[in-house]
Design goal:
The protein has ten helices and seven strands. It is α/β, with parallel strands linked by helices. Helix 1 packs parallel to helix 2 and helix 1 packs parallel to helix 7. The relative contact order is 0.16.
Length: 235
């Protein structure tokens, strides 16, 4: 099973270097960056990596979140507090334990910018949201600390745990397949004039997206859903 750390719009090269260091501490070796600073591979980031410079050199860089997660089959988002949306929330310990209940998959852990964190729009792409239990009176963690906590829990769970989700002759859908289906669904709802109160569409659409991203959709199920939409269009 592959676990990928994804930093969305990280602001400081030294923070990226510190993340690389703790990743290697816990045997996490795949780093993806979405719109990092142009000079993220500089002296400061190398110094903070403290021997883990190879992760910086091999980091994959993307210009958007959909591109960065397109090949993933499961995506966790991270936030310091719960948002007003219907989502599965889990602590790092529970999240890393339940991760191994799935079939062999490629999983990403998504972290937002240091100052603002992930947006609600970012979180709609995630199946589960991880929150780290901290002192509510002082909840600030830096980026590397948050990655370290999740990395620690990841390492504690044996990769030999049995997979409980049986997908038969199909496999879990990738983020690209899920987002393509959702784009198709939105287009069809627009054409059907589903949004009777236009200004409510952003909230309604976010809620609909969350229904599908909470599920472990397989490739076969995506094909079935698309077939169902095609059948309704022909009526």
């Amino acid at each position: 099973m592959s676990l990928i750390i994804i930093l969305s719009h990280p602001q400081l090269p030294e923070n990226i270097g510190a993340v690389a260091r703790v990743m290697l501490n816990f045997n996490l070796r795949r780093l993806r960056l979405i719109n990092p600073p142009p000079d993220f591979l500089n002296e400061k980031s190398r110094a903070l990596a403290a021997g883990a410079e190879v992760l910086l050199e091999e980091a994959e860089v993307f210009d958007s979140l959909p591109a960065a997660v397109a090949d993933l089959t499961y995506l966790y988002g991270t936030t310091s507090n719960e948002r007003e949306m219907i989502k599965q929330y889990a602590s790092p310990r529970v999240a890393m334990a339940t991760l191994h209940d799935h079939s062999p998959i490629t999983t990403g852990i998504l972290f937002g910018p240091e100052r603002t964190g992930l947006t609600n729009e970012d979180l709609t792409m995630c199946q589960t949201i991880i929150t780290i239990p901290v002192n509510p009176g002082f909840s600030s963690l830096n980026l590397a600390q948050a990655v370290a906590i999740i990395g620690y829990e990841w390492l504690q769970h044996s990769l030999e745990m049995p997979n409980l989700l049986h997908t038969g002759q199909t496999q879990l859908a990738t983020q690209q397949q899920i987002q393509a289906f959702l784009a198709d669904l939105e287009d069809r709802l627009d054409r059907a004039k589903f949004w009777r109160v236009p200004h409510k569409k952003p909230t309604m659409w976010r809620n609909l997206r969350n229904i599908f991203t909470r599920l472990d959709l397989t490739e076969q199920e995506i094909r079935t859903l698309r077939g169902m939409l095609d059948s309704l269009d022909r009526r």
